[in-house]
Design brief:
Mean pLDDT: 80
Order of helices and strands: HHHHHHHHHHHH
Radius of gyration: 18 Å
Distance between the termini: 45 Å
Structural class: mainly alpha
Number of helices: 12
Helix content: over 70%
Largest sheet: none
Number of strands: 0
């Protein structure tokens, strides 16, 4: 926080876009960060500006992540894309079932809209890239999901206006907790494989 407040003091909107571009942080952290008076003082963004800049920042890497997913799927024997798809099997199982395309895109938008770690634009774009979903419709679904997520987080920060600093801290702690649990899960699976 000190880095951004020192180097981007007059450019709160740019700091918001940069934070929103970071995987797992995205708009979940960028919006309370942009609205935090304890970080920015009088330069803290109003709710609608924080929402817009966080949405722009979270959508900027979307095509890149989707494109990388397509390249991984196309230029590998399937091992890497299968490994990633297995990693997110719970998330992608809904997309793999025999459903009509509208439901698949609706599920993708809903997945991106959930404001929790590992359920954002980056993961949704990667899932869309590794699946057989069309790029244009996937980007539209991801955009709708990101917009819903940004609006939900902005409403939460607006309702808890006097506690935005606490919302930011709790959001960061939730992200860290999810990452630690995910890392421990990977280590535990590796340990079980070695014992077997």
């Amino acid at each position: 926080m000190n880095f951004f407040s020192d180097h981007f003091y007059d450019l709160v909107w740019l700091a918001t876009i940069i934070v929103a571009m970071i995987p797992t942080l995205e708009s979940k952290i960028a919006i309370p960060f942009a609205m935090s008076v304890s970080v920015w003082g009088d330069l803290a963004l109003p709710a609608w500006q924080a929402c817009i800049f966080a949405f722009i920042g979270s959508m900027l890497p979307s095509y890149f992540a989707l494109f990388c997913g397509r390249k991984i799927k196309k230029h590998t024997t399937g091992f890497i894309s299968e490994k990633i798809m297995t990693r997110y099997s719970v998330k992608t199982s809904l997309l793999d079932k025999q459903q009509n395309n509208f439901k698949k895109y609706l599920l993708l938008a809903g997945f991106v809209a959930v404001p929790l770690p590992l359920t954002g634009v980056w993961t949704g774009s990667l899932i869309a890239g590794l699946s057989s979903l069309k790029t244009g419709y996937s980007l539209l679904a991801i955009m709708i999901g990101a917009l819903i997520s940004c609006i939900a987080i902005t409403l939460l920060c607006t309702l808890l206006e006097n506690s935005i600093g606490y919302v930011l801290i709790v959001s960061i702690l939730i992200v860290i907790a999810f990452l630690v649990v995910d890392l421990l899960g990977i280590i535990f699976k590796q340990f079980r494989k070695k014992r077997a």
